[in-house]
């Protein structure tokens, strides 16, 4: 399991976000499994590896990549953040608070949405292998392991120019995190000293996810760690985790068997994923969760209006039931 998860997550940047053909998933095979088990696991690894950033849940909108490289969207259309119908050759997407970013197969990046902080000014970026949205900034990982960031910097979330040997990035709210090739994690932005001190002790990390209040790390043995003690208490029993996503107030994780776990607040029904199966990608938004199934369809939790917030409305961010042919062809 350790080899499988390490392969799946540590090299996800290279194989998931670029169009380089088949991944060498067989190098992570379980030699103790029977032949049919090895075949099933390899197929699952390849699909999850390539599907990792095919869907993205933002604050009030959702985006996904079709197998032909075009993009679909649903939810709040204000600020133009859902204006993705003309995009093509897209291999990864990220939905933020008021903008959307797409990574193209040639290593360039496109962005739409509200640009008053300059977070959509990514036209000059190249050699990019990963891109993600914070609330008011955009981060890109270059193929040489360095990182670019643009947008608002009021919490220092753009201070990544000296980062090197980065193999994965994550952004949320006013925060940026990078996973280094040695399994340690580096951060910039709105982090307390206590959070920074905890992160400094982490090792053997193979993937990361930034939330509004916490950072989650997946270890090579399939367990998870968090910067918040309450999270660690709830996550202590999790195992065989191969992907994780953090919303504003909840955490979701994908297990190697295609099922999904969730903890945190459930005021909008965002934790109602216990019956999901055959999932190959997950994303946690603002009070909702989406999952990509291996047949190319997408599932979502129902967005329940919280009675304590009478101004809330359902803007259609969960209207994904009719989506098909989502994710890469395997």
Total domain modules: 1
> CATH homologous superfamily - what is it?
Regulator of chromosome condensation 1/beta-lactamase-inhibitor protein II
CATH architecture identity? 7 Propeller
CATH topology: Methylamine Dehydrogenase, Chain H
Element order: H for helix, E for strand = HHHEEEEEEEEEEEEHEEEHEEEEEE
Task: State Rg.
Answer: 18 Å
Q: How far apart are the termini?
A: 22 Å
Derived from helix and strand composition plus strand pairing, the structural class reads: alpha+beta
Physical arrangement of strands within the biggest beta sheet = 1-2-3
Explained architecture:
The protein has 330 residues and is of the alpha+beta class. The protein has one domain (2-300): 7 Propeller (Methylamine Dehydrogenase, Chain H). The chain is 14% helix and 33% strand. The chain has helices at residues 2-10, 12-16, 35-51, 193-200, 229-235; strands at residues 55-57, 61-65, 71-75, 90-95, 99-104, 109-113, 128-133, 137-142, 147-151, 166-172, 175-180, 185-189, 205-210, 215-219, 224-226, 241-246, 250-255, 260-264, 279-284, 289-293, 298-300. The strands form 7 sheets. Strands 1-2-3 form a 3-stranded antiparallel β-sheet, with no helix packed on it. A 3-stranded antiparallel β-sheet has the order 4-5-6, with no helix packed on it. Strands 7-8-9 form a 3-stranded antiparallel β-sheet, with no helix packed on it. Strand 14 and strand 15 form a beta hairpin. The longest helix is centred in the N-terminal third of the chain and has 17 residues, at 35-51. It is globular. The two termini are 22 Å apart.
């Amino acid at each position: 399991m350790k080899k499988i998860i390490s392969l799946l997550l540590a090299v996800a940047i290279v194989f998931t976000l670029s169009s380089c053909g088949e991944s060498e998933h067989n190098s992570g095979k379980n030699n103790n499994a029977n032949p049919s088990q090895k075949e099933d696991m390899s197929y699952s690894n390849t699909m999850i590896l390539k599907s990792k950033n095919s869907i993205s849940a933002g604050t009030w909108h959702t985006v996904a990549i079709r197998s032909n490289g075009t993009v679909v969207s649903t939810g709040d259309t204000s600020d133009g953040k859902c204006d993705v119908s003309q995009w093509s050759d897209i291999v990864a997407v990220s939905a933020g608070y008021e903008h959307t970013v797409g990574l193209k197969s040639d290593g360039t990046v496109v962005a739409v949405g509200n640009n008053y902080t300059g977070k959509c000014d990514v036209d000059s970026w190249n050699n990019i292998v990963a891109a993600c949205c914070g609330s008011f900034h955009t981060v890109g990982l270059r193929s040489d392991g360095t990182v670019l960031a643009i947008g608002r910097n009021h919490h220092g979330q753009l201070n990544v120019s000296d980062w090197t040997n980065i193999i994965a990035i994550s952004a949320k709210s006013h925060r940026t995190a990078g996973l280094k090739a040695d399994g340690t994690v580096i951060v910039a932005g709105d982090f307390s000293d206590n959070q920074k001190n905890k992160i400094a002790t982490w090792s053997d990390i193979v993937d990361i996810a930034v939330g509004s209040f916490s950072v989650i790390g997946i270890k090579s043995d399939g367990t998870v760690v968090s910067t918040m003690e309450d999270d660690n208490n709830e996550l202590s029993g999790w195992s065989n985790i191969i992907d994780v996503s953090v919303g504003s107030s909840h955490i979701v994780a994908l297990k190697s068997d295609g099922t999904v776990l969730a903890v945190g607040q459930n005021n909008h029904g965002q934790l109602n994923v216990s019956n999901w199966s055959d999932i190959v990608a997950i994303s946690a938004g603002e009070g909702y969760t989406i999952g990509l199934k291996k047949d190319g369809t997408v599932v979502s939790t129902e967005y329940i209006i919280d009675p304590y917030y009478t101004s809330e409305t359902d803007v259609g961010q969960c209207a994904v039931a009719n989506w098909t042919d989502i994710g890469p062809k395997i």
